[in-house]
Amino acid sequence: MDKKDIYEHLAKIYLDASSKKKKKNKAYPQLFRNLFFISLVFVFGLSAVLFSNSRDKEPSNSQIALVLAADPLKINFNFDPAKKEIYSLNLNRLNLNKYRSVAFAVKKANFRDTISLRVEFTSAFKERSEVYVKNIPHSWQDCTLNLSDFKGISDWSEIMTLAFIVEDWNTKENNGVVYIDNVRLLK
Questions:
Q1: In terms of CB atoms within 10 Å, which end of the chain has fewer, N or C?
Q2: What's the whole-model pTM score?
Q3: Mean pLDDT score, 91-115
Q4: Strand order of the sheet with strand 115-123?
Q5: Spatial contact of 117 and 177, defined as CB atoms under 8 Å apart
Q6: pLDDT at position 37
């Protein structure tokens, strides 16, 4: 064999080997691409099935709410000259016929104090009704009051105010702070 035959033989071996490498490399990406598309179809199909099932059923803990006060309210009471402290929200003749309850989070600042909070609605027809929330805790607690518990209001179509009141005969201490947050009406 001369040099030319050796070069041709080596070139043939090299070119055949490189073409086999290319064929191997092309085979695996095609397999990975197919697996990738199959997994995408599976994931999207599964999520579509799960999403359609969850859309058919309404979650049991879902509530439709109208937020009346998103910022925390602070009732800072001092009963030396006063007999009660009031924080009032103007509802501007809001129709509450479609709502079933009022909810809010409440806590007191002094853990030794015993406080009861009066929650009061006033209608445009001068009807007034209150419900007491007793033993306000030192940490945040959600409180939900049914509107049907406010017996003094017969027409809920034009409600003027929602008031939170701390009275001197409903506290152990003469001064303190009550915090109210996330005041909302629930359907």
A1: N
A2: 0.63
A3: 88
A4: 84-94, 159-171, 115-123, 128-133
A5: no
A6: 62
**Distance between CA 88 and CA 78 in Å, rounded?**
17
Whether 166 and 79 have beta carbons less than 8 Å apart is answered as no
110 and 173 Cβ atoms separated by less than 8 Å: yes
Type of residue found at 39: S
* Whether pLDDT at 51 is above 80: no
Helix (H, G, I), strand (E, B) or coil at 182: strand
Are 180 and 75 a contacting pair, CB within 8 Å?
Answer: yes
Q: Among 45, 173, 34, 44, which Cα is nearest to 114's?
A: 173
Neighbours of 87 (CB within 10 A): 17
The Cα-based distances of 15 to 4, 25, 139 in angstroms read: 16, 15, 79
Q: What is the DSSP letter of 61?
A: T
Three-class SS state of 5: helix
Topology, domain 65-186: Jelly Rolls (2.60.120)
Q: Which pair of structure tokens corresponds to residue 47?
A: 């999520």
